[in-house]
Amino acid sequence: MIDSGTGNDRALIERFLEMMRAEAGAAANTITAYGTDLRLASEFLNGHLGDAETDALERLGAEWQALSRATVARKSAALRRFFAFLADEKLRGDDPGAALPRPAAGRPLPKVLSTADVDRLFEAIDARIARVPPDPRDLRLAALVELLYGSGLRATELVSLPRNAIAPDRPYLILKGKGGRERLVPISDRARAAVALWRAHVATDRPWLFPSGKAHLSRVRLYQLLHGLAAEAGIPPDRVSPHVLRHAFATHLLEGGADLRALQAMLGHADIATTEIYTHVDSRRLVELVNQRHPLTDALVDASAKRA
Q1: In terms of domains, do 66 and 198 share one?
Q2: Is residue 225 part of a domain?
């Protein structure tokens, strides 16, 4: 059983986080967030998180009432996983995690861009590229947007691409995303062409495709560029971001008939439930798909005709 005390809490938390790194392959951000949540909970319980009983966890949950639903859900998930780990390792004989709050999911749907909105963004880019004298930064913007909308890259993945990550004769690249998981990302012909035009302006000794100073383009600067483009296209800037373009990539592919599992692989989601929420599939379209494609449909039609 667990010895009580702050020092022991620290040791248990570190042991748990090490398991998350080694066995679960959790992403660095997840490890950091879990570590912070567990240490704060330990501090609230005066160093007795590891041996906390139901009443202590109920007090902890009450302390979280002023926090957002998403924050409470994350904290509860961290602690439940921690207690499950202690139980699995026989470090305590019970798992009190059920006493922690479980706020309703209520996950908001991402902002949506229509294909017409996307067309307006690219029209604004074309207008920029046609300016005289030409500005290489417009070619950079074209490459950024083509990759976001044409491949569904995350912002961090995009800005940190190596200079030669995308080859003119290879319609894909292999990325290591969240949790160290590798995935194959298709690169459209348009995106490869846009990258080739931009890369001609990147010095061969620069390690990044989108360099800035001594490093690569920052996420903050990427957001600023997209907001400026949105304003030029007549779209409210707060409706356009790297995540929104990634979502548009997924949504428009799905509307075009893409397979949900293939989309999951391209987006790098560990759980297909994330893809289902992310793409906010139109339920009416799913019903129509079942009615049109299910193998029993023809049989039902034939049976109805015979009864008639």
Answers
A1: no
A2: yes
What are the two backbone dihedrals, phi and then psi, of residue 122, each rounded to the nearest 5 degrees? -70, -30
Residue 273 maps to a domain: yes
Tokens of 210: 């989108």
pLDDT in 10s for each residue of the chain, 308 residues: 455 444 589 999 999 999 888 866 677 888 899 999 999 999 999 999 999 999 999 999 999 988 888 889 899 989 999 999 999 888 998 999 989 988 765 555 556 788 899 999 999 999 999 999 989 999 999 999 999 998 888 888 899 999 999 988 888 888 876 666 677 888 889 999 999 999 999 999 999 999 999 999 999 999 999 999 999 999 999 889 998 898 888 878 777 776 667 667 677 666 556 565 555 544 445 555 556 655 665 554 455 555 55
Shared domain check, 21 and 142? no
Residues 6+ apart with CB under 8 A from 158: 144, 147, 148, 210, 222, 242
Catalytically active residues are: 154, 178, 243, 246, 269, 278
Domain housing 245: 115-285
Q: Within this chain, do residues 147 and 214 fall inside the same structural domain, yes or no?
A: yes
